[in-house]
């Protein structure tokens, strides 16, 4: 008899606990619905919290809904998921989004961040918002803007790598991510145009890899070489950490200040500032933060923030005063490793000839 009573009590207790969970979930859902950032925050407050405008949020949600698998769940809207992820990207902290939301657990916060990150890195989104100019007309447009601003012809982008700190990876692969800066990182290669728009991202390599190695093993390197083979003479601008090639112009080394080097440096600052703007707007990537995920997920977060960076540029959302003050932090770095050629290859020789011709044209 006692066993039957105990069994009945356990069934009742289990059912009550489930009812309580359902009730709490309903309450939390109503609480979330009662606070709408689009309605209850001013434009400035919204931008300070999420780093984008209300107009951009509406557009972003529409794009993710139509181009990816991201959708609302029974109790949480797609917009709420996106706002949760944006707040994490903007702060780099789980605790602040959880603290402000009050009725959202850290576990669910993590789930929403993962869902939105996957959506932002969906191939449909990437192909639309991170695109190297894929037609002669598009490349010509970028080249003309660079020439008007900096006086160097033929430039279709500036290239550089930047380290993004990550938590210590598993021991068997840790050596791939320990950088010369003495911390674990991803060395992310990016190419940008004159308007700080990111045209290409390669976030697959650990911090132990040098910029030149990442470039030599990138799809963009192969692509721009194919342009030269088809008679289209355009190039990227890179620092002395890259090899001089017909399609990649680097500064003259051990030379006194000259017009080519001066213009090269002024033009190439755009990639330095692109990294700074990216890291200062999306503070999860900031130099004082560490991404506490496996390297592959860290790479996805960097790519997701790059997509958001370009969307913000497309809408003309200005940097906050806080971001502007930090804009030029990377230009002060002076520990760049110079690339050394092992032998005088035909690509190197042709690259130097083209650079000499280019230097005479910009006098």
UniProtKB/TrEMBL annotation:
Keywords of this entry: Hydrolase, Metal-binding, Nuclease, Nucleus
Record keyword Metal-binding present: yes
Gene Ontology, cellular component aspect: nucleus
The UniProt record lists the keyword Calcium: no
Main location, first listed in the record: nucleus
Name of the molecule in the record: DDE Tnp4 domain-containing protein
Subcellular location: Nucleus
Organism from which the protein derives: Parnassius mnemosyne
Recorded GO MF terms: hydrolase activity; metal ion binding; nuclease activity
Domain DDE Tnp4: 159-310
InterPro entries according to UniProt: HARBI1-like, HARBI1_dom
One Pfam family of this chain: DDE_Tnp_4
Family under the similarity heading: Belongs to the HARBI1 family.
């Amino acid at each position: 008899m006692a066993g039957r009573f105990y069994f009945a009590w356990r069934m009742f207790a289990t059912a009550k606990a489930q009812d309580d969970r359902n009730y709490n979930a309903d309450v939390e859902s109503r609480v979330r619905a009662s606070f709408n950032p689009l309605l209850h925050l001013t434009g400035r407050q919204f931008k300070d919290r999420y780093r984008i405008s209300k107009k951009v949020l509406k557009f972003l949600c529409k794009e993710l809904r139509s181009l990816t698998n991201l959708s609302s769940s029974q109790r949480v809207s797609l917009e709420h998921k996106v706002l949760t992820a944006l707040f994490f990207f903007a702060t780099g902290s789980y605790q602040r989004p959880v603290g402000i939301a009050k009725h959202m657990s850290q576990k669910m916060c993590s789930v929403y961040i993962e869902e939105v990150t996957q959506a932002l890195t969906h191939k449909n989104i990437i192909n639309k918002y991170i695109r190297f100019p894929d037609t002669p007309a598009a490349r010509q447009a970028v080249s003309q803007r660079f020439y008007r601003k900096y006086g160097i012809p033929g430039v279709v982008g500036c290239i550089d790598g930047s380290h993004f700190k990550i938590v210590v990876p598993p021991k068997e692969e840790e050596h791939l991510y320990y950088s010369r800066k003495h911390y674990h990182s991803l060395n992310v290669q990016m190419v940008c145009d004159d308007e700080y728009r990111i045209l290409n991202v390669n976030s697959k390599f650990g911090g132990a890899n040098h910029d030149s190695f990442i470039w030599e093993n990138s799809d963009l390197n192969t692509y721009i070489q194919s342009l030269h083979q088809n008679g289209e003479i355009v190039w990227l601008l890179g620092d002395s950490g890259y090899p001089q090639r017909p399609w990649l112009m680097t500064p003259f080394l051990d030379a006194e200040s000259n017009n080519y080097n001066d213009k090269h440096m002024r033009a190439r600052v755009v990639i330095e500032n692109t990294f700074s703007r990216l890291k200062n707007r999306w503070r999860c990537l900031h130099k004082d933060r560490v991404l506490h995920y496996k390297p592959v997920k860290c790479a996805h977060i960097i790519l997701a923030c790059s997509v958001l960076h370009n969307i913000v540029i497309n809408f003309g959302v200005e940097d906050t005063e806080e971001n502007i003050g930090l804009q030029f932090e990377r230009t002060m770095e002076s520990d760049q490793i110079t690339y050394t050629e092992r032998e005088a290859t035909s690509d190197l020789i042709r690259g130097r000839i083209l650079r000499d011709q280019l230097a005479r044209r910009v006098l």
